[in-house]
Automatic annotation (TrEMBL):
Family indicated by similarity: Belongs to the SLC13A/DASS transporter (TC 2.A.47) family. NADC subfamily.
Name of the protein described by the UniProt record: Solute carrier family 13 member 1
Chief subcellular location: membrane
GO CC annotation, single: plasma membrane
Membrane-spanning intervals of the chain: 12-30, 42-69, 81-99, 119-138, 239-265, 285-307, 343-362, 382-399, 470-501, 513-532, 553-577
Annotated membrane topology: Multi-pass membrane protein
Domain of life per record: Eukaryota
InterPro entries: Na/sul_symport_CS, SLC13A/DASS
UniProt keyword terms in alphabetical order: Ion transport, Membrane, Sodium, Sodium transport, Transmembrane, Transmembrane helix, Transport
Length: 595
């Protein structure tokens, strides 16, 4: 028994050692770069799944293992840890810092709750719909980063309102005095499970809230380290986080510009089959929009059942008489909104910058009309979403928020400086550096897979699929792409597989779109792990989720996604492109070559 207790205490240490030793024969026996990279991949995947090491620490392993195996030099691995994504994240976090500092997120959250109601089922559907719509035009990462502070605020407002209702009911029965609700603002949206809750004082920003009923609730759970009143509150927070992550990815499916994988597919297809001219903004929207709507709705049902239970009566209670508790919650939310007072100058400026950022992202290169990037035609592709994010982000450090004054020896109050919308200290407190390292590790791992030839080796294993029925080829390739994209970057996966799948389609004389469309769509189905794509990492950074939560939820959404894509390939997509025949714009069998 003592030995078992010893093992349990040091289980993470033993798991790390055991994983490294058990997988070690792979590079020792095979002695190839592919095997050495596979060893690194399996070790990192195991540590990410089990959290034997902190996720961001595990993400640093490519920087250690790739140079030792001779896969990539250290300088090249290090460059993978800071990409265009990180500049985009910095700009968006500047926006998020200002939104939360000046309480704009609370105003938006309270107004949304007052409009939609406090039923979690309808709230999550509303958030999923709005997030998916935004991600149709903006990057998935930007959308998730912008929506999550609002979602976090809504969840905390509902939890606090329910706490006030219960406190009021207890007060009524006990006869004690009720001091009213003070919304808890000590829960920082970007804290992780390893960090304790803390508040960062901001000049001109009151953080005294939460000292009464909400802090009392937190103190009750201080023994377990939890920050939720009940298990249902925790489940609701998990549900709302995953809804944002998954809907931002699902929405990106619907437009050519919605995600990088769609753009890569369009470029590859138009270059390989220039005579087709059938893939454009409109045709892609027609084939993907129905699929996205179905996946979004079924994912909502699945997540609702997984975290809050499968209760149709509760889920679809719309227009019915509200319970006393719901009415009381709505009244508390209304009172909290009134406490904010009229909208302030700082909130207006932050809102304007938010809208300008969104418009600049949308109009940069919409696809169906020339965007403002055409003004810089001499340098095509130089300006990206991160350029816009940095431009707006820098303005938050420049635009005045209020004057700083001092009293002279004569008693006169004079202004001597001004305070910008945000300061560097405030930005640092919000910037999730651990998530930046986490995503960088994913980029480094993807680069190592390409450099070592492991990605090419995996792709070449698809070649024997030509002897199978077409529907089975589509299913196998879709499942393989969905699995591969969980541990490799989406752009790397689609870039690797498109040439192989195109050659496969030409060789067996099947319309290339029959195989390429589902594979492209499934490349976006990276729902299982926090490191699978940036939106997953962003919502994971809020500290409500564990890896196993995302694995359970993501597995169901992956199955739904693949099933809907298969359904589409046999219904509306087939008729849209006439996929039943081998097209004249595709090369004849004599010119097709297998990789």
């Amino acid at each position: 028994m003592n030995v078992l207790s010893y093992v349990l205490v040091y289980r993470k240490f033993f798991l790390v050692v055991f994983t490294l030793l058990v997988l070690l024969p792979l590079p020792i026996i095979l002695r190839t770069k592919e095997a050495e990279c596979a060893y690194t991949l399996f070790v990192i995947a195991t540590f990410w799944l089990t959290e034997a090491l902190p996720l961001s620490v595990t993400a640093l392993l490519p920087g250690l293992m790739f140079p030792l195996f001779g896969i990539m030099p250290s300088k090249k691995v290090a460059s993978a840890y800071f990409k265009d994504f990180h500049l985009l994240l910095i700009g968006v976090i500047c926006l998020a810092t200002s939104i939360e500092k000046w309480n704009l997120h609370k105003r938006i959250a309270l107004r949304m709750v007052m409009t939609v109601g406090v039923n979690p089922a309808w709230l999550t559907l509303g958030f999923m719909s709005s997030t998916a719509f935004l991600s149709m035009w903006l990057s998935n990462t930007s959308t998730a980063a912008m929506v999550m502070p609002i979602v976090e605020a809504v969840a905390q407002q509902i939890i606090s309102a329910e706490a006030e209702v219960e406190a009021t009911q207890m007060t009524y029965f006990s006869g004690s005095t009720n001091h009213g609700l003070e919304i808890d603002e000590s829960v920082n949206g970007h804290e992780t499970n390893e960090r304790k809750e803390k508040t960062v004082p901001v000049p001109g920003y009151s953080n005294d809230a939460g000292k009464n009923s909400s802090n009392m609730e937190l103190e009750k759970n201080s023994g377990t380290g939890a920050k939720y009143r009940t298990k249902k509150d925790h489940m609701m927070c998990k549900l709302m986080c995953l809804c944002v992550a998954y809907s931002s990815t699902i929405g990106g499916l619907t437009t050519i510009t919605g995600t990088s994988t769609n753009l890569i597919f369009a470029e590859h297809f138009n270059m390989r089959y220039p005579e087709c001219r059938c893939i454009n903004f409109g045709s892609w929207f027609m084939l993907s929009f129905p699929a996205a709507i179905i996946i979004l709705f079924l994912s909502w049902i699945w997540l609702q059942w997984l975290f809050l239970g499968f209760n149709f009566k509760e889920m679809f209670k719309c227009g019915k008489t509200k319970t006393v508790k719901q009415k009381a919650c709505a009244e508390v939310i209304k009172q909290e909104y009134q406490k904010l007072g009229p909208i302030r100058y700082q909130e207006i400026v932050t809102l304007v910058l938010f809208i300008v950022m969104a418009l600049l992202w949308f109009s940069r290169d919409p696809g169906f009309v020339p965007g403002w990037s055409a003004l810089f035609s001499k340098y095509p592709g130089f300006a990206t979403d991160s350029t816009v994010a940095l431009l707006i982000g820098l303005l938050f450090f420049l635009i005045p928020a209020k004057r700083l004054t001092k009293t002279t020896p004569t008693g006169e109050i004079v202004a001597f400086d001004y305070s910008p919308l945000i300061t560097w200290k405030e930005f640092q407190s919000f910037m999730p550096w651990d998530i930046a390292i986490l995503v960088g590790g994913g980029f480094a791992l993807a680069d190592g897979c390409e450099e070592s030839g492991l990605s090419k080796w995996i792709g070449n294993k698809l070649s024997p699929l030509g002897s199978l029925p077409v529907w089975l080829i589509i299913l196998i390739s879709s499942l393989l792409v969905t699995s591969l994209t969980e541990v490799a970057s989406n752009p790397a996966t689609i870039t690797l597989l498109l040439p192989i799948l195109s050659s496969l389609a030409d060789a067996i004389q099947v319309n290339p779109l029959y195989i390429l469309i589902p594979s492209t769509l499934c490349t976006s189905f990276a729902f299982l792990l926090p490191v699978a794509n940036p939106p997953n990492a962003i919502v994971f950074s809020y500290g409500h989720l564990k890896v196993i939560d995302m694995v359970k939820a993501g597995l169901g959404v992956n199955i739904v996604g693949v099933a809907v894509v298969m359904l589409g390939m046999s219904t509306w997509i087939v008729t849209l492109f006439d996929l039943s025949t081998y097209p004249s714009w595709a090369p004849p069998i004599t010119n097709a070559t297998m990789p």
